[in-house]
Amino acid sequence: MAKLIPITENHIPQIEEWIKADEWHKNDPTWSAEGLLTGNGALSFCLADDEGPTCFVILYDEGKMLRLSTQFAPEEIVSKRRLVTALLSTGIPGIIQFGKDKDYKGIVYESENESLINFMSKQGFKPVGGLDYALIFENPRLITDERG
Predict the structure, then answer these.
(1) What are the chain's domains?
(2) What would the mean pLDDT of 121-126 be, rounded to a whole number?
(3) Among candidates 4, 29, 6, which has minimal Cα distance to 94?
(4) pTM for this prediction
């Protein structure tokens, strides 16, 4: 079973290695291992299973939405099967629950990675313009007036 754990200074060397191997993040000057540490963003965590970290996640507050960013491992370190199992069992449900508990309207992420886009579309994320894809919560907390 996967679990959400804090991202600590001890994770930095591993995150840096994963960033160097990541074609989507390695040349992004705004993306850093230190920026993923727990305490940054609205929420950040390491999604780990019995074998260790599967990915590192950070959520940023963008008003009514949460912006999701993830550092994935190279596939030779964390297989797609292992990653998908952790994401489906714990990661995505945990992110959605956090968003709903904090009264966000939904979750948005940016990507050009067709494999990620296809996977996330199966989880309910839809294109919303540019490179953004969003999951809008179906049952946001309703606000009613005195008439109910």
Answers:
(1) 3-136 (3.40.630.30)
(2) 97
(3) 4
(4) 0.90
